């Protein structure tokens, strides 16, 4: 007898694989980072060739900035756009915005002005906080604040010594991610503190991230992978290793060895430029962002733990991890769910389940699913759906109001419980993957130039005085 598209036997197997559903962890991201600061205050949280920052310093500096943000009128649920070069100041502000009760949004400075203006309007932004490099990259009708340098921030630490931070709920917004909703327009999605923390309790161990991790911070701040490289690393007590632009372009391998990086998320095209013997400290390699060639898996899996992962902007953190990719793994395999339940449904009807091995749309269930698209109820209603008929009988009373996210990609579940992505016409993995506008394509090419694929120097704006 069939049960919404599959046999009862298959249904029972799927329930066993997808239950129990990971619970919601009602904690705030910055509170988890503060906990690490109390455990090992003198441990280095951030390191680069220019400067190091301990957990204690990160805690006190983010308190200082949060104090100033609240004084400037930032309140709970505000969205604060940030745009910085590679710098610990960006990380300080990410944490400070959350401590102030608001949510941060990392902007891509190389997007067309019209795109940025649309985003800022949608977010109802009060101000933009940015570095001197990008202070003239934004619409003139938005106040732009340029923070002082890190040494100057350190010199102001006493200002917030008696400050009482606002009480932030795990239900409050923590950060926003830009993606492309089903309407085709760029849209922001809100992720809550509890969504992110609920996810890392499962996906951090699956990704082998812990207090001993020295994580290469290579992703640009507006990219989804950056959230793992920065926030997950800090929440588990690891160390962020951040190369500067010159090191990225000229000798990333030297930086990896100098900082003893042991965990890195890299694209297959990037990792193919060197060999395992060149990076002896590297122990865990996350390959994502592109289809993974089988030859690359074979080369690296003999020397390091090779993982694959899958993320969507509409859910906090990594939703699946290909744990210990072996030589017989397929290049399209994204592994097993991490902190979520994954279902495969008919792409035209979420109330119909697809049998194991057959292709359908990936449906994501769990506490990491985001709130929805900002000021876009039509797209939210289409992508964030109520529990399908087949799911309702196994939901607890507290779960019946949960929404699931339609990932917009086709995939299938294997007999072993892993998942393969077959296609992604509407992958929703970030606006940079789906934008058709020619100006945005130009911005993408500019990023490739900046990351050293050809010899071309960037023009630089003259330095300006701090106005923060």
Automatic annotation (TrEMBL):
MF (Gene Ontology): phosphopantetheine binding
Keywords tagged on the record: Phosphopantetheine, Phosphoprotein
Gene Ontology BP terms: amino acid activation for nonribosomal peptide biosynthetic process; secondary metabolite biosynthetic process
Record flagged with keyword Cell cycle: no
InterPro entries noted in UniProt: AMP-dep_synth/lig_dom, ANL_N_sf
Protein name: AMP-dependent synthetase/ligase domain-containing protein
Pfam family, one: AMP-binding
Any one cellular-component term (Gene Ontology): cytoplasm
Lineage of producing organism: Eukaryota, Fungi, Dikarya, Ascomycota, Pezizomycotina
Residues covered by the AMP-dependent synthetase/ligase domain: 34-373
